[in-house]
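HOLO CASE FILE
Compound: pyridoxal-5'-phosphate
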Amino acid sequence: VEETRSKIYKNLISPDKKEPYQKMINLHTYNKCLSPSLTLASVAQTCEEVGFDSIDSYGDFKVSCDVSSLRNFEGIVAKKFGVKDSLFVVSGVMAQNIALKQYAVEKKKQRFLCHKTSHLLLHEHNAFDHLLNLEAVVIDTDEAMSFEDVSKALEGPGADEIGTVIIEVPQREIGSRVTSWDDLEKMSDLCKSKNIAFHLDGARIWEISPHFEDEGKSYADLVALFDSTYVSFYKGLGGITGAMLFGTETFIAASRIWLRRFGGNVFSLYPLVASCWEGFNKNVACNPTISFFQKRARMREIVELLSGDDQVNKVVTFDPPRPTCCITHVYIKCESNGDLEAANEFVKKTEQITVFNNLRPRKPGNSAQSYWEWNLGNENYHIRDEIILRGFRSLVSNLAKRQK
Ligand SMILES: Cc1ncc(COP(=O)(O)O)c(C=O)c1O
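Model generated. C-alpha cells follow.
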C-alpha cells in the first residue's frame, strides 16, 4: 500500500508545501473515471482474458452456458451466490420491479412492505404504482428495518394484502446501517410461515460483505434467507451499468418472460455484461488488489482521524459514527448547501483538493446540516491522512468565514 501511495504522490506534493500541487486530488471519486475509449479498451481486454467470445441476442434465453458468454457470466455469478440460476438485467429498477410484479401475480396480493427510504419510494417516481399497479406499505423509522418493525406491520391494517417484504442491505439512505443477522433470519422465517415473498435489495451487497463475513456468513448464506435478490455491478464494482437477479430456477425462468415484457432483453448486451464481468473479477472474484475488508478498514480509520481532529469535529460528524462498510455519510453544520459548495471551490483553488463532488439534498427536518455520501474505492483508497486532514480543515475554516 505504501509503495502505491508513494507512486501516486511522487512529484505531486512538495514536502515543504511551498510548490503548488501539480494535480487535483479528489477525496470523493471512488471509481476510476476513464474516457469512453479507454473504458471500452479495458472491456475488450477483459473479453480476451475471460474468453468472452459470443455476441448475445435478446438475452440468449434458449442458449446454454457453453455457447453464450452472457449465460456463462450469469452462471458464474449464480455459483458465487450459491443459487441455481440468475438473470442479467440492465438496471436495478427493472430487476426489482420484475420481482415485485411476479410475486403480486403469484400471491394475488398487490401490496409490498418496505422501509420509508427504499429506492422504490424515493428514486423511481413510483414506477411500482404507475406501471404495475402495486401499493407500498411503509415502515417509518430512521433506523434499519428490524424484525419487530416487520412483524408489527404484518399484523397491522391491510397486512392481508401484503405479498412481498423487501429489505435493503445495507440501507444506503441511512448511512449504510444494517439489519442484524438474527433479525434477517427471523424475518425470513416469518415470511415463509405467512407465504410472503422476501426480497433483498442488495445494491451494495459487495460493500457490506465484510460485515457478514465477520459473523462467518458468506454471500450464499445471506442470499439463502431470501426468495430473490438483486445485486448491482456498477456501484462498488465500477461496471458501465448492470444488475442481476437471483432466485429459484422457476423464478428466474418467469423473470425472463417479465424481462421481455419490460423490453429489457435488448438486442445485445455484451459490452455491458463484459464490463460488469471485469468489475466482478477485479473487485470480488480474482484476488482484488484492494478488498472490501481493506476499504472498510480504511474508511473507519479516516472517520476516526477526522472525528478526532478538534478543528474538524466542531462541525463535521459521520452517520453512523462507526461505518458499517466503506460507505459513510458526512454531515456538516452550515446554513446552506450553497455556502458549503463555495467553501469546497475555495479548497479546490487553494489546496488542489476536491473534498466532495456533490452534496445530497438537505434532509427535511434537518435544516442545520448539509451532507454527502462518501464511498471509499480503488481510486481514493490510497490518499494519505495528511491530505484528507488538510482538505477538511481548509473546508471548515473557509466555511466558518462565510457564516460569520
Ligand atoms: C438501493 C438501490 N436499489 C436499487 C437501485 C437501482 O439500480 P439501477 O440504478 O441499476 O436501476 C439503486 C441505484 O442507485 C440503489 O441504490
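CASE NOTES: Confidence is low (pLDDT under 50) at residues 8-16. DSSP finds 15 helices and twelve strands in the chain.
CLOSED: yes
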